[in-house]
Amino acid sequence: MQIHFTKSVAGVLATFLFLFLVASISGTNQITQNAIAANGTTNITTTTSLSSTDGSNITLGNPQLNYTEYDKTTSFKPAIVNGTHGIEATFTGYGILNGIKITDNGKAFVTNMSGALHTVARGVLVSGNGSTAGTADHVDQGIGHYGVDGKLRDTGIILNTKATGNLAFLGNMVGIYKDKSDKAGNIITETWFWK
After folding, report:
1. Neighbouring-strand partners of residue 159
2. Which end of the chain is more exposed for a tag (fewer CB within 10 A), N or C?
3. If you write DSSP's letter for every residue of 24-58 in order, what string do you get?
4. Beta strands 49-51 and 84-97, pairing class
5. How many CB atoms lie within 10 A of CB 134?
6. Which residues are 108's β-sheet partners?
7. pLDDT at residue 157 is higher than 50
8. pLDDT tens string 15-40
C-alpha cells in the first residue's frame, strides 16, 4: 500500500508531531503517562521546517524509513486508570521493517476526550531468532475519530526507546503513524520514521 503526500499534508503531520512532542516533554499529559505505566512505499519529497520557541528552525527532512504493520485486536475490556474511564485493548501484529520480518505485541488504553478518541499504547517489536534477533520497545500516542464508513482512523506519534540486535537502528527514532481499524479489530498502520 502506498500513500502519497502533498506538501500541505506533510506540513500538517509535521506540525502535529511537533506539538505532540512538546506536550509529551512538558508533562502536560500526566494521565497518559500514568496509563502507560499502569498498563504496562511513501513518497515525501519535501523538507518540512517548523519554528521553535527560540525562533530557530527545526528541519525534519525526509523520513529514513517507512513501515506498514497489520494488527489484530485480541481483547477489549473496560478499564479505569487514575480515575479516567476507557477501554484497554491488547493487540498483536506483523510486518516487514527495513527488510526484516517482525512481530509486534502490546497494550493500548483508549479514552473519549471531547469527541475524539485518545489512544496511548506500549508494545515491543521483535525480529527473528538467533544471534541477530532484536527487539524495539515503543510508546504511541494518537488522536482518532470514526469515519462515515464506521472505521476508526487514528493519527499520532510513535517513540522508540530501547532497541537491540538487528532492530538497534530503531533506537531513538520517532515516527508519525496513521492507522485505520474496522469493527472486527483489524488494523493497518502506516508509519514514517525520523532519527
Report:
1. 139, 174
2. N
3. HHHTTTHHHHHHHHHT---B--S--EEE-TTS-EE
4. unpaired
5. 18
6. 89, 121
7. yes
8. 344 334 333 333 333 333 333 333 33
pLDDT in tens, 68-107: 999 999 999 999 999 999 999 999 999 999 889 999 999 9
Domains and CATH numbers, the chain: 7-58 (no CATH), 63-194 (2.40.350.10)
Beta strands in the chain (DSSP E): 49-51, 57-59, 65-81, 84-97, 100-113, 116-127, 134-146, 152-163, 174-181, 186-194
Decide: 170 and 125 in contact? Cβ < 8 Å. Answer: yes
Distance of CA 158 to the CA centre of its chain: 3
Alpha carbon 18 to chain centroid, angstroms = 14
